[in-house]
Design goal:
CATH superfamily of the largest domain: DD-peptidase/beta-lactamase superfamily
Structural class: alpha+beta
Radius of gyration: 32 Å
Largest sheet: 7 strands, mixed
CATH topology of the largest domain: Beta-lactamase
Helix content: 25-40%
Number of strands: 23
Length: about 625
């Protein structure tokens, strides 16, 4: 008993000693902080202020504004994809003190009717969106009114000023996540935040280890003027000839840069969820074209290659045999050497995929087929002297933190693999140019068409295919144009009142000179660092048109949460978009969890959470 009592007394002394030591340390720390500068004394206030900025998202304090997603430019620095920081007016009806005054003030600023705002206030939601897409000036005006129960919420919004132009190459994003095209392929660069060389192997970091400390823009090889002109003529041709699908590629033969990328039907990435999935898919690698349409080109190439650059020129087309003395096997072997049956190596979104079954070597040699992209890549190699290119569309990036542009890595995408000797390449190019008889123009194009049968399950259908391959200038070309189209129904076609219809050769005659004379670009670092006011105004007008004011809305109580489990993020967003909810997504792959659950009433619910996980291999 004596030993136990002594032990308890000893423990009490230790506890008192520890408490005294702690008190001494706290007192010393207090004295030290008191003697330190004000910035450290007020550290709690500073933290509180920072938290306040994050929570309030003040519209009139630039320091609180988030870094926006990078802008996408064409090669002449015209905006193709741009983000704006706009604002929503959120109301909490139970906090509003004077509804009459509040409605009157909001009516003046937002332009909404008194009845429309009153209807919003009568909803049972905790937070109600009164108006959206407000500029910073409008948001600041609302904040200065200091209305009880009225809050400002910033939203980053993506806009594609040219709408359907090059939509398949640009792709789209949602909630600041790149989902397709350039937005998806270069999401790491466009997302605010740092990235390293392995994240962007196509970019020459010029000695820098890390880029993207603030915002990073990307500049594409696309030319808006050339793209629009090609779109215009392709749409006319497609309508006049009643084609179901049409596509075109304009390629810089010297580098492999894509100047124009057209696929019809197309879609508007501003409203990608409204588009049919087939319209969102580029046709350049999904449709196989009969190589018999360009047999003269392939036979002439094979004959030139077999001569090893020696001997006399080939006979003119009108006196030559179909195969120019070669067997079908020799022509097929030449096509194999040119890469018409192998997978395309390129830096385009449609090359970044796992399913390449249609790119594998054909099992039989008749009929031979190839995609528009493979045909384009093959003839670019033939016309540049025999070097294999890797088509690309990223020209450079602009780092706002460093105020500097970074171009492509010279070791990436350059033409280094030769199909044949340089002398042979010159001969092949010359022989291909001789195919066009009596051509006084400084361009060359070859046109072919066919009717073929395509098996679809237990049935077969006839399709009409057309293709045009052209280049300019004639002797040493720098631009290659490939246009291909398909119609799934045969003649007789529907009667049309229009007398002058544009044909595919007529398209080539009009387009090739235009491409040559307008193949110019802006020189110097003339990147606009801020979104243009013109495009911002266009965006705001389009939103006003697309979201007219109406009181006839589906009651929220009747809306239920759909089942999106197992869907991709893009498919899930398509299912949820019409519900006008805030959507948070985490992870990649397929949706494995959703909150709220399917069938749940969406009354008083404003946010949906989606959890995604990769699919098992």
């Amino acid at each position: 008993m004596v030993k136990v009592g002594k032990k308890q007394t000893k423990n009490k002394r230790r506890l008192l000693f520890l408490l005294a030591s702690l008190f001494f340390l706290l007192t010393a720390a207090g004295v030290t902080l008191y003697r330190l500068p004000l910035s450290l004394q007020d550290i709690g206030s500073v933290i509180q202020l920072a938290v306040g900025k994050i929570e309030n998202q003040s519209a009139d304090k630039k320091s609180a504004e988030p870094v926006l997603r990078g802008t996408i430019y064409d090669r002449n620095y015209k905006e193709l994809g741009v983000s704006y920081l706009l604002y929503d007016i959120i109301a909490r009806p139970n906090e509003i003190e004077d509804k009459t005054k509040t409605i009157s003030r909001l009516e003046e600023i937002t332009g909404k009717t008194k009845e429309n705002i009153e209807d919003s206030f009568n909803k049972t939601h905790k937070n109600i969106k009164i108006a959206g897409y407000l500029s910073q000036d409008q948001a600041s005006e609302v904040k200065q009114l200091d209305l009880a129960g009225i809050y400002i919420k910033p939203n980053e919004t993506r806009f594609y000023p040219e709408h359907t132009m090059a939509a398949h190459l640009l792709g789209f994003s949602d909630n600041n996540i790149g989902l397709k095209g350039a937005e998806g392929l270069y999401d790491t660069i466009l997302q605010p935040g740092e990235f390293i060389q392995s994240d962007a192997p196509e970019v020459d970091f010029a000695g820098e280890k890390i880029l993207g400390r603030s915002r990073t823009d990307i500049v594409l090889t696309l030319d808006t003027q050339l793209q629009k002109k090609t779109d215009e003529l392709l749409k006319k041709y497609m309508k006049d000839q009643q084609m179901d699908q049409a596509m075109a590629i304009v390629l810089d033969i010297r580098t492999g840069g894509v100047l124009s990328f057209n696929s019809l039907p197309t879609f508007d990435p501003n409203y990608y969820w409204k588009a049919d999935e087939s319209n969102q898919k580029s046709l350049h690698d999904s449709i196989q074209f009969d190589l018999g349409m360009i047999h003269p080109l392939l036979a002439r190439t094979a004959r030139s290659i077999s001569s090893n650059g020696m001997g006399t020129d080939l006979p003119p087309v009108f006196v030559a045999s179909q195969n120019l003395g070669l067997t079908s096997e020799q022509i097929v072997a030449s096509n194999q050497k040119l890469g018409l049956y192998t997978e395309i190596d390129c830096y385009l979104p449609l090359c970044q995929k796992d399913n390449t079954d249609h790119l594998k070597p054909a099992e039989t040699h008749s009929p031979q087929q190839a995609s528009c992209l493979k045909i384009t890549n093959t003839f670019a190699s033939l016309l540049n002297g025999g070097y294999k290119l890797k088509p690309f569309f990223l020209e450079s990036i602009f780092d706002h933190n460093l105020g500097k542009s970074f171009g492509r890595n010279n070791l990436i995408g350059t033409a280094t693999t030769g199909i044949f000797e340089p002398a042979q390449g010159v001969k092949v190019r010359r022989e291909l140019s001789r195919l066009k008889k009596n051509n006084k123009q400084d361009y060359v194009f070859i046109h072919g068409s066919t009717v073929k049968t395509i098996a679809t399950g237990n049935f077969s259908k006839y399709v009409n295919q057309e293709i045009l391959i052209g280049w300019v200038p004639k002797k040493i070309p720098d631009i290659l144009l490939v246009v291909a189209a398909q119609r799934s129904h045969l003649a007789p076609l529907k009667k049309q009142v229009k007398k002058k219809k544009i044909t595919l050769p007529g398209l080539g005659t009009k387009l090739l000179p235009f491409l040559h004379s307008n193949n110019v670009r802006t020189t110097g670092d003339e990147i606009v660092l801020k979104p243009t006011n013109e495009n911002l105004e266009r965006f705001l007008i389009s939103r006003q048109i697309d979201h007219p004011q109406t009181k006839l809305e589906t009651p929220v109580s009747l809306k239920k949460m759909p089942n999106v489990l197992g869907l991709s993020l893009r498919k899930g967003l398509q299912e949820l978009n019409h519900l006008k909810l805030n959507i948070r997504a985490q992870g990649t792959g397929r949706i494995v969890s959703q909150d709220p659950k399917a069938g749940t009433s969406l009354e008083n619910i404003e946010e949906v959470f989606l959890l995604l996980e990769p699919e098992l291999p």
